[in-house]
Design a protein that fits this description.
447 residues, alpha+beta, Serine Threonine Protein Phosphatase 5, Tetratricopeptide repeat, two-stranded antiparallel ribbon, five-stranded mixed sheet
Length: 447
């Protein structure tokens, strides 16, 4: 019971038993002076118990003892034991600070205390520094740490004087223990100051390490950027290779279509030679029809290798060329046939264009051969091709003499009709034939 925290902490279990006994004997005090002294002793003991719990880290248990100690001491004799009150106030500030109750801790730190002991001044500065560290106010934190550094420097300067005071205190047995307590307390506070300085050094090291990691991260970004540029160059090179391959492929396809067209023209020439050496009229007509069909296919391959896009054929131009080709073969003098072609903007791939071209070749050839005799003038042919998305529609009409009455019976025996039906089937459709008062109409839908 020498009023020091370190002694009370060392003998906590033993002292607590004596404290309980002493407090139970408080009821035997009779005089006013004894009652006051007993209450003061009780307040000091409560304060020491609270500070013991602080040292043990049990802050929630320490707070009630410290608050009771302050109120008890202030009610009985404030001036005589103000140092104990100061220590308890600082201990309460430390408790709330450790429990992250920053506002309450700041309220206790802001209490105006008459601090007469260097240890209390150092402790208050240390608690202020810890508070500002928690709130992120590093400027004020550094200010209070510097105050303790100055006190430490002053203590070091006066170290010899302190030692002389210690020697003088030893001479007096009455002050011997007080001197030891003072030295121990000063050493404790100095260690705390050094600990705070070490914490500052640790934070500085953390900042330095963070900077290193930031630089490493930046280096990683630079590396990723350079790698991205390398990948982009590689992609560009691969794209260039692919583009060259596509150009080469287009060139080869154009060459193939060109050669197919030449071969078909050669076949057409052979058919022409065969026609000259043939006397049968039926054979000549069959050869001419075959030659016309070969020309229709050759014209498709010619259009393909002349176009930039080898996958589709522009049908308006193809139909015009096909009609001109048929017209040059079958048109006779005296005919005045007006041909209207409506297929602007329609494009078909080769798989659809070839059967379509052969169908149209049959229709135009038949119109020129049979629909318009020598005495029928002002003939009209209308060719309509429309495409909407995946759906297409074809219509062919002429105002010729029309089909004979037995057309249905002839359909199975006519090679031209059978050929057109098969070609329309390739387009996944069915050929429709309408007889009109002004001629004939052929039409079908396709995909």
């Amino acid at each position: 019971l020498d009023k020091t925290t370190s002694t009370a902490l060392t003998n906590f279990s033993k002292a607590k038993g004596y404290i309980e006994v002493y407090l139970n004997d408080m009821s035997s005090v009779k005089t006013e002076s004894e009652i006051i002294n007993g209450n003061l002793l009780k307040g000091i003991i409560d304060g020491n118990i609270g500070k013991c719990y602080v040292q043990m880290g049990q802050f929630d248990k320490a707070i009630p003892y410290l608050e009771t100690s302050i109120s008890t001491i202030e009610e009985n004799n404030i001036g005589r034991t103000s140092s104990e009150v100061n220590e308890n106030v600082l201990a309460l500030a430390e408790c709330h600070l450790r429990m992250d109750r920053l506002k309450i801790a700041k309220d206790y730190l802001d209490i105006e205390l008459e601090l007469t002991k260097t240890s209390q001044i150092i402790k208050k500065n240390r608690l202020f520094a810890a508070y500002y560290d928690r709130t992120g106010d590093f400027e004020n934190q550094a200010l209070y740490l510097k105050k303790n550094v100055r006190i430490r420097d002053s203590l070091e300067v006066n170290e010899s004087s302190i030692k002389r005071q210690q020697i003088a205190a030893i001479i007096s047995e009455e002050n011997l223990e007080d001197s030891r307590r003072m030295i121990n307390l000063q050493k404790l506070e100095m260690e705390q100051t050094r600990s705070d300085m070490a914490a500052m050094d640790e934070r500085t090291n953390l900042v330095f390490i963070s900077l290193i990691f930031t630089l490493l991260g930046f280096a990683g970004l630079v590396f990723a950027y350079l790698k991205s540029i390398k990948n982009q160059r590689l992609i560009a090179e691969q794209k260039h290779i692919i583009e060259n391959a596509l150009v080469e492929k287009d060139s080869l396809l154009k060459e193939i279509h060109h050669r197919v067209k030449n071969n078909l023209q050669m076949v057409s020439s052979l058919l022409s030679l065969q026609t000259k050496n043939t006397r049968s009229k039926a054979a000549i007509e069959a050869l001419e029809e075959g030659k016309s069909r070969v020309k229709a296919m050759a014209l498709i391959h010619q259009k393909l290798y002349q176009n930039d896009d080898l996958s589709v054929i522009e049908m308006q131009g193809y139909i015009e060329s096909l009609v001109n080709s048929v017209q040059s073969v079958f048109k006779k003098g005296g005919h005045n046939i007006n041909i209207t072609i409506d297929a602007e903007g329609v494009e078909l791939d080769i798989d659809r264009a070839i059967p379509f071209g052969l169908i149209l070749n049959e229709l135009v050839s038949n119109s020129f051969k049979y629909a318009f005799p020598e005495d029928k003038n002002n003939g009209k042919i209308y060719i309509h091709l429309r495409k909407n998305g995946d759906q297409g529609f074809f219509e062919y009409t002429d105002n010729g003499i029309g089909l004979p009455d037995d057309t249905d019976e002839r359909t199975n025996s006519s090679m031209g009709i059978r050929l057109m039906n098969r070609l329309v089937n390739q387009l996944q459709s069915t050929l429709n034939i309408d007889k009109t008062t002004e001629g004939v109409r052929f039409w079908f839908n396709f995909k």
